[in-house]
Specification:
About 30% of the residues lie in helices and about 20% in strands. By secondary structure, the chain is an alpha/beta fold. The longest helix has 26 residues.
Amino acid sequence: MPAACESVLEDIEDIVSAENLKPHDRQFVRRNVFPKVRKRNSQKNAQTDDEPPSDSIIPGVQKIWIRTWGCSHNNSDGEYMAGQLAAYGYKITDNSDEADLWLLNSCTVKNPAEDHFRNSIKKAQEGKKKVVLAGCVPQAQPRQEYLKGLSIIGVQQIDRVVEVVEETIKGHSVRLLGQKKDNGKRLGGARLDLPKIRKNPLIEIISINTGCLNACTYCKTKHARGDLASYPIEELVDRAKQSFQEGVCEIWLTSEDTGAYGRDIGTDLPTLLWKLVEVIPEGAMLRLGMTNPPYILEHLEEMAKILNHPRVYAFLHIPVQSASDSVLMDMKREYCVADFKQVVDFLKEKVPGITIATDIICGFPGETDEDFQETMKLVELYRFPSLFINQFYPRPGTPAAKMPQVPAAVKKQRTKDLSQLFHSYNPYDHKVGERQRVLVTEESFDSNYYVAHNPFYEQVLVPKDPLLMGKMVEVNIYEAGKHFMKGQPVSDARVHTASISRPLAKGEVSGLTEEFRRSAQNGTKWKAQPNAEIPVKTRLSSWMALQLPWQQEGGGLKILSVSLALLAVLLMLYYGGMKTEL
């Protein structure tokens, strides 16, 4: 009996290109694909192998565990991947032990995040789990040794996660790392109308663009997300409308730099925001994501008006990173401390009570004690209620990693000193006794309270009354901590229900029509209708499942597999007939 073989397809980009070739064209690309085949140890023959041959595995029925690290953009990608897999038939599980496959969605900002990612890969392999990797780490450095032989789904290829998971379950190693393009122009990424499973059914995370216009010397994310590519305004507005129709009451706009939005497509952030506020229902709120100082400077007047809108949180995340101009120059941040102060001072004057959050890196290469003291003075001056303090970590392949480094002990001490300063003041003490309007959207980590936010996106803990969830209510503030306030609902106050429809259940897939839901539940085929909101077509395979529209593009590998199977059957019938005649 011949030894069993395992085929490893290192990269199927040659079969299915980033430009999504037509199936006919892919037939001519096949000649350039050379799957590697390695024989297993002869002592481990097919009779003793625990895994069934790949052609006997039925994809779409396995359990998948998804772990995401990093920013809200990454979390949005994770939600989209979960939604597509669930719509296809896979079961998304919170139990990593019972999962057949782990989908690990990584972050490359800091060394500890990548360390967690690497350790998870090792744990999955030790547990004999199938593994698919996603996020910025494999996109930026796909040839790292610990990623060798593993399937990778690129940050702009998340609409093809089903394809990658299916092939991985069959035992193949698949890598899709290409960019989405239209007539040679890079797009923002996968479509926004893909199915998704929101981690919180009340909160929709919308990525308005990917990449940025900067070249910060410490940033590894740029290697993964690339240059700026924005989504059209109409697509973003449509996504917001759909979210509200599915019971969402809070929208987060995210990207690597929201302030740069639209510069590549002839528009800008204020134009987008004015269009979005038109469709926000009463009782719902919009939160802006991070923006760097250079791009917000051009729109201060308009941004102040938008941040004063009753359905937009008066909150803005503006990373300063350092209060030393020499350090900012070494970082290539493209602004000076005076620019940052101008933005903050203007918004504080024009948007009373606004919350300004910022980031600071401690111990960047070349940072002197004098440089660090300037940063301490800046924090003392503004007393930021939300401050993200990061000890500098040199990321491989970045210019900053090649610069003379600040000693580790000095970096650690500066991080400690800044943290002590941050914890020396309480930003909310003066708000005790106030009456505030808050939107309740989630449960606290300790499960003792519900979490709400006031118009300045300050966290307010309220009693765990299920009637409050998803509602906008008035509360009396009776206690304040470093990062939160506690409020008691006012009995005679009006309650706003932001949702124009019932929120989806936790784990329920967003973006699927009722007709599709019924057909999926009944296990029947669903024929595409010309005006269907999300058309689907029956998948061509020996097992009954549904192929969704986002898989119709780039489905060459599946079409090829089915075609070969049909050809084999025809040949068997043909030669069988010849033998009968003989």
